[in-house]
Amino acid sequence: MLIELGQDAIDLGIVVTDGDAALAFYRDLLGMDHEASIPMPLGGGGTMHRLRCGTTLIKIVALDNPPEARPPAGGIGGGTGLRYFSIHANNVADVMQACEAAGVPIVMPVTEARPGVTVAMVHDPDGNVVEFVHYA
């Protein structure tokens, strides 16, 4: 591999329209650890909320003037580019039950994708697809 990795995970930046709604989903519902909220000087100013999901850093960016562009509709087949990201969870059914109870839009209910692989997908508050996956 050309890249000499400095850590065992990537960081993921998600620009959102409503920082409070994103925190309610990622921090409060899913239980990601909130490390810090810091000023975001790029993109016209705003706040970056840094959440830890295992060793991955999820950067929720709430700009003072959110862009008008939104993720293309249609889920995975709706466009090119980053269409979803996966969180490996040992309790996919429990996560989906909590999401459903909270009124989170379900993209795909708990499904056995192939023997030993369970997946499910939801929309976050901005319509981004978040997949939960478990390998038995």
Can you walk me through this structure?
It is a single chain. By secondary structure, the protein is α/β, with parallel strands linked by helices. Helices cover 15% and strands 42% of the residues. It is built from two helices and eight strands. The protein is globular, with a radius of gyration of 15 Å. The relative contact order is 0.19.
For this entry, give a set of tags.
136 residues, alpha/beta, 4-stranded mixed β-sheet, 42% strand
SSE blueprint:
Elements: E1 11-16, H1 19-29, E2 33-39, E3 46-53, E4 56-63, E5 84-88, H2 92-101, E6 106-114, E7 117-123, E8 129-135
Parallel strand pairs: 1-4, 5-8
Antiparallel strand pairs: 2-3, 3-4, 6-7, 7-8
Structural class: alpha/beta
Alpha plus pi helix count: 2
Cα separation of the termini: 28 Å
Gross morphology is: globular
- Poorly predicted runs of 5 or more residues: none
Helix content: 10-25%
The overall average pLDDT, rounded, is 93
Order of SSEs: EHEEEEHEEE
* Number of strand segments: 8
Beta-strand percent range = 35-45%
Largest sheet: number of strands, sense, barrel closure = 4 strands, mixed
Q: What multimeric state do the chains show?
A: single chain
Radius of gyration: 15 Å
- Identify the strand order in the major beta sheet: 1-4-3-2
Brief overview:
This protein has 136 residues and is of the alpha/beta class.
